[in-house]
Write a structure and sequence with these properties.
InterPro entries: Cu-only_SOD, SOD-like_Cu/Zn_dom_sf, SOD_Cu_Zn_dom
Shape: globular
Order of helices and strands: HEEEEHEEEEHH
Keywords: Signal
CATH superfamily: Superoxide dismutase, copper/zinc binding domain
Bound molecules: 2-acetamido-2-deoxy-beta-D-glucopyranose, copper (II) ion
CATH class: Mainly Beta
Distance between the termini: 35 Å
Organism: Dactylellina haptotyla (strain CBS 200.50) (Nematode-trapping fungus)
GO molecular function: metal ion binding
Radius of gyration: 17 Å
Number of domains: 1
Helix content: 10-25%
Protein name: Superoxide dismutase copper/zinc binding domain-containing protein
Strand order of the largest sheet: 5-3-2-1-8
Largest sheet: 5 strands, antiparallel
Number of helices: 4
Strand content: 15-25%
CATH topology: Immunoglobulin-like
């Protein structure tokens, strides 16, 4: 985030022809068989389950996201985003850096959901809506195609392996976070235990560590049966 803002200012100072950041292009060639996922939980966010797959025409990414058991002490509605860096072994959500923002749009002014190409690529709740207040006890799910996310590692908008999801409270405090990792085709979480990570192209520096995610994902996988049961009722 800091990198994005300063880079944008530098571009303006250098007399770049465009003052505003570039719009995000629609992505192509995202195979429907490619699946990435993020699963995490902690004391503030009891369940978070996101599933990212390609689309039949290859444009964009189908996101299925479910959240539940967010404690009432943390006020919503809750924003959630794709952040630039992985969650380190100590589960420190601050270490995930800013939002995935390869086109240097920054988060001011706020994302206009009616012009999603102008939003930060990683601002999922800005484009598709925040997690509502009523998830303190219930599981809440949403599903949408985001045309600006990519499952291809060469794309700037690639969401896999070095990225993470962060859930915030209404005051933007980071409540919980988890890594986005490749899933086995057709299998929930089967391959995520030892997925390797690489530093993100737009990361602000800092270590990109892969340790730590495996243990949490493994532990969270135990709760998936219950989550899926609820999700199945909602869909
Ligand atoms: C969490 O990460 C941030 C950013 O890297 C760092 O400044 C902070 O000291 C870390 N907090 C803890 C408790 O390690
Ligand atoms: C993710 O969602 C897609 C589309 O609904 C589904 O085909 C796939 O099995 C799911 N994968 C996981 C790991 O949840
Ligand atoms: C990943 O885990 C599988 C299953 O435990 C194992 O067979 C494989 O060797 C591991 N790969 C790496 C790179 O650690
Ligand atoms: Cu965020």
């Amino acid at each position: 985030m800091h990198f994005s803002k300063s880079a944008a200012l530098l571009a303006v100072a250098a007399g770049a022809s465009v003052v505003s950041a570039a719009d995000a292009p629609e992505t192509q060639g995202n195979a429907a068989t490619t699946v990435y996922e993020a699963r995490f939980s902690n004391a503030d966010v009891g369940n978070a389950y996101l599933n990212f797959t390609g689309t039949p025409d290859g444009v964009g990414v189908l996101v299925t996201a479910c959240f539940g058991n967010i404690v009432a002490a943390q006020a919503g509605p809750y924003p959630y985003h794709i952040h630039q860096m992985v969650v380190p072994a100590d589960n420190n959500c601050t270490a995930t850096g800013g939002h995935l923002d390869p086109y240097m749009r920054t988060d001011e002014p706020p994302c206009d959901a009616n012009a999603p190409q102008t939003c930060e690529v990683g601002d999922l709740s800005g484009k598709h809506g925040k997690i509502p207040l009523d998830v303190n006890t219930a599981m809440w799910c949403t599903s949408y195609v985001d045309k600006f996310l990519s499952l291809k590692s060469d794309d700037q908008a690639f969401i896999g392996n070095s990225r993470s999801i962060v859930v915030h409270n209404a005051e933007k405090v980071r409540l919980a976070c988890g890594n986005i990792v490749a899933a086995a085709a057709g299998g929930m979480g089967a391959s995520s235990a030892n997925t390797t990570t690489t530093p993100g192209a737009t990361s602000t520096g800092g270590p990109a560590v892969s340790t730590g995610a495996a243990g949490r994902i493994g532990a969270n996988a135990l709760a998936l049966g219950g989550i899926l049961g609820v999700a199945a009722m909602l869909f």
